[in-house]
Write a structure and sequence with these properties.
About 80% of the residues lie in helices and about 5% in strands. It is mainly α. The chain is rod-shaped and about 145 Å long.
């Protein structure tokens, strides 16, 4: 007793989510169309009717049997190759985006480093200004103290001069 393998199975029995089934259907169709196109351009006029017919049947089955995964070994090989190419393209794009992200991160880090260096320089400048202000305030307090002492001596001297003038001791 030989049991024939089915030529296709419902894609809903593959354990895929709805969105994964949609992707499978779309790419199964694309893979088989691309395979049919590749065979038609490479075998034109060369008498490869058997290969061409097999691929045509698989493409036809895929297009007419919406919702089914074609189990023909050739069709599965084509679909597998298609997904390998697709995954390679996705991987290349991920690598490109990763490289762009790294470049962006390095650039941003450089800008942040430069901004931090500029901020550090401004903070140092600000601290120097505050130090100079503190020094000037200290000098100001010293000068005010000396001025107050000088005023006190001047007031005493003027007071003594007035007393001397009042007593006639001044000539």
């Amino acid at each position: 007793m030989t049991s024939a393998l089915p030529s296709s199975i419902p894609d809903s029995q593959l354990g895929l989510s709805h969105s994964e089934i949609q992707i499978l259907r779309q790419h199964q169709q694309l893979a088989l169309q691309n395979q049919a196109y590749a065979h038609s351009t490479s075998t034109r006029g060369r008498g490869h009717a058997r290969t061409s017919a097999s691929t045509s049947r698989a493409a036809s089955a895929a297009s007419s049997g919406h919702g089914r995964l074609v189990l023909d070994p050739g069709s599965l090989a084509v679909l597998g190759q298609h997904f390998e190419r697709l995954m390679g393209a996705i991987q290349n794009r991920v690598e490109q985006l990763t490289a762009q992200t790294q470049i962006s991160t390095i650039n941003q880090s450089s800008r942040a480093g430069a901004a931090m260096a500029a901020a550090d320089a401004e903070i140092a400048r600000f601290r120097d200004i505050i130090r100079q202000i503190d020094e000037l305030e200290t000098e100001f307090d010293k000068v005010r103290h000396i001025r107050d002492i000088v005023k006190g001596f001047r007031a005493r001297v003027e007071g003594l001069e007035r007393k001397m003038d009042a007593r006639g001791l001044r000539r």
